[in-house]
Amino acid sequence: MPDTLLASIDSTWDAADAAALTPDHAARLAELQQLDAALAALYARGAEVLAGALHGLERGLVELATTADVALRGLEDLLPAGTAGDDGL
């Protein structure tokens, strides 16, 4: 069963270091390896793909924040002259 599930994970999906998800990833993987090699392979690939997806979301959020910052700065140019700005209040 784990082999079938592992084969269903798209090989083109980005992968990243799964240790970024949990510090005890290596210990969990070693424990699974002793129990069932196929299950360990599924766990390893799933964790890598999940870490890759999270890394992709982080990159996307940084890009979105940068774009929003630029766009909002452009809105300041639309304010009429003499309009109060950010007074920090």
Q: Could you explain the architecture of this structure?
A:
This protein is mostly helical and 89 residues long. It has one domain. The chain has 3 helices and no strands. Helix 2 runs antiparallel to helix 3. The protein starts with a helix and ends in a 13-residue tail after the last helix.
What characteristic shape results from the CA principal axes?
Answer: elongated
Q: Which parts are unreliable, with pLDDT below 50 for 5 consecutive residues or more?
A: none
**Which sequence of SSEs, written as H and E, runs from N to C?**
HHH
Counted beta strands: 0
Provide the number of structural domains. Answer: 1
Q: Radius of gyration, Cα only, in angstroms?
A: 23 Å
Estimate the helix proportion, in percent.
55-70%
**What portion of residues belong to β-strands?**
under 5%
* Biggest beta sheet summary: none
**Overall pLDDT:** 78
Structural class by helix and strand composition: mainly alpha
| End-to-end distance | 60 Å
Multimeric state of these chains? single chain
Number of helices: 3
